[in-house]
Specification:
Elements lengths: L2 E5 L2 E3 L5 E8 L7 E7 L6 E6 L6 E3 L7 E6 L4 E6 L8 E11 L2 E6 L3 E5 L2
Length: 120
């Protein structure tokens, strides 16, 4: 069955770094764009970063540009989010998402999330 499992969340001080990983299984990973979203209780989930299936293109939320880097290893079926210069406002549950668009149909898979807390 399809699984997306996130790793790497935790508590970090402002200015610190974390690297999130998302291990995928049960689908053809290299055929899916991969995205990281985050959500704070009471707010809508927001798209933080995205990477194309062949890693040729990336996109970022304006507030994380220059601080976060998304990458993927199709041989390991894993997507990463390197987060540097973390700020308290980056505190959220971070979710991994696999998306495929085909013939007008969108297919999404989601992980369970990993908590990132930025606090002194």
């Amino acid at each position: 069955q399809v699984q997306l499992v996130e790793f790497g969340g935790g508590l970090v001080q402002p200015g610190g770094s974390l690297r999130l990983s998302c291990a995928a299984s049960g689908f053809t990973f290299r055929s899916y764009a991969m995205r990281w979203h985050r959500q704070v209780p009471g707010k809508e989930r927001e798209l933080v970063a995205a990477i194309g299936s062949l890693a040729a293109d990336t996109a970022y939320l304006d507030s994380v540009k220059g601080r976060f880097t998304i990458s993927r290893d199709n041989a390991k079926n894993t997507v990463y989010l390197e987060m540097n210069s973390l700020k308290p406002e980056d505190t959220a549950m971070y979710f991994c998402n696999a998306r495929q668009k085909s013939g007008g149909t969108i297919r999404d898979y989601w992980g369970q999330g990993t908590q990132v807390t930025v606090s002194a």
